[in-house]
From TrEMBL:
Annotated localization: Nucleus
Family: Belongs to the Mediator complex subunit 31 family.
Physiological role: Component of the Mediator complex, a coactivator involved in the regulated transcription of nearly all RNA polymerase II-dependent genes. Mediator functions as a bridge to convey information from gene-specific regulatory proteins to the basal RNA polymerase II transcription machinery. Mediator is recruited to promoters by direct interactions with regulatory proteins and serves as a scaffold for the assembly of a functional preinitiation complex with RNA polymerase II and the general transcription factors.
Keyword Transcription regulation: yes
Keyword Transcription (UniProt): yes
Organism: Mycena pura
Keywords from the named record: Activator, Nucleus, Transcription, Transcription regulation
Pfam families reported for this sequence: Med31
GO cellular component: mediator complex
A GO MF term: transcription coregulator activity
Protein name: Mediator of RNA polymerase II transcription subunit 31
GO biological process: regulation of DNA-templated transcription
Highest taxon of the lineage: Eukaryota
Subunit organization: Component of the Mediator complex.
């Protein structure tokens, strides 16, 4: 038996692979251009996909959120629970608005505190 076929029947390995796949997907939700692409393909309208997004809310729990590297992913996951947000993601202007808001947040926040807009960034 080789390693690949052994891991196919190992529940722990199966669960780990599933968790890693779901984590990678949730982190991709931090990208407004990816969300826009999903909306353009009407994926965000599919009931099964909407149910999957609801299922993924477990990542907001402390034990799972610690694995998230891009906090906007959790924010977008929450927004995706709303039909209006999913509909607006189809629009180029909304995608650009979301991207700008995300950029402004990264630009003006350091360690969870708002930085004065006039303070120059450190090199």
């Amino acid at each position: 038996m080789d390693a690949a076929s052994g891991s196919e029947s190992d529940p722990k390995a199966i669960n780990r692979a599933r968790f890693e796949l779901e984590l990678e997907f949730v982190q991709a939700l931090a990208n407004p251009y990816y969300l826009h692409s999903l909306a353009q393909q009407n994926i965000l309208d599919q009931p099964a996909f909407i149910n999957y997004l609801e299922y993924l809310l477990y990542f907001k729990e402390k034990d799972y959120a610690r694995f998230i590297h891009y906090p906007h992913a959790l924010h977008h996951l929450e927004l995706l629970q709303h039909a209006q947000f999913r509909t607006e993601m189809r629009q180029d202007e909304f995608r650009d608005f979301l991207h700008q808001k995300q950029f402004d947040h990264w630009r003006t926040n350091r360690n969870g505190t708002k930085v004065d807009e006039e303070t120059p960034a450190l090199p």
